Amino acid sequence: MVKRLFDIVAAGLGLLLLWPVLLAAAVWVKLDSPGPALFRQTRVGRLGVPFTIHKFRTMRVAPGAAITVGADPRITRAGQVLRQTKLDELPQLWDVLRGAMSLVGPRPELPKYVELYPAELRERVLSVRPGITDPASLAFSHEAELLAAAADPEREYREVILPAKLRLSADYASRASLLTDLGLILATLRRVLRG
Fold first, then answer.
1. What total number of domains does the chain contain?
2. Domain that holds residue 166
3. Is 194 exposed, middle or buried (0-12, 13-18, 19+ CB in 10 A)?
4. Which of 24, 132, 19 is nearest to 78 (CA)?
5. Given this model, what pLDDT does residue 190 score?
6. Helix (H, G, I), strand (E, B) or coil at 54
7. Average pLDDT in the 119-132 region?
8. Where is the Bacterial sugar transferase domain (predicted)?
9. DSSP 55
10. Cα angle vertex 62, ends 61, 68, to 5°?
11. Measured between alpha carbons, how far is 172 from 54 in angstroms, rounded to an integer?
């Protein structure tokens, strides 16, 4: 209950204070390449319930792989900056406010990857709301580079990165508290400010 109250207050304040940044980013995305300002995608949320996640669109509207590998040619000029500064994640404050996400929690995955979760970890990871940041996000902030170095990026994600992220997410879900959340938020902000 305390965690949800914190999410509502923090997300509401964030949206209120950052609306000029959100507006400027949306306009920039629209001017930089054809397509919508927001990217919407179905992810798996708490208790396995699907929901629509919102981000600023950072790629050209074109078919492609579900994972981003290195300097993906689909990434736009605006998208490059938004990804580096993590500003592309700001629309998820709305997802937090509406209750689909939390500020801190396991990053929500695509349904096709959730199908790969081992049963013993699936229940634990999906027992909490997914979040904008978590220990796995911090540990794998260089994920695109790791995938770029792999001979088969999709296989690398499924067999190496996803299991490691799952273990971190399951550990978080087992010991989550407001104090650990505050620590992860501060660590994320430090990482973003360092670039």
1. 1
2. 2-194
3. exposed
4. 24
5. 92
6. strand
7. 95
8. 3-193
9. E
10. 95
11. 23
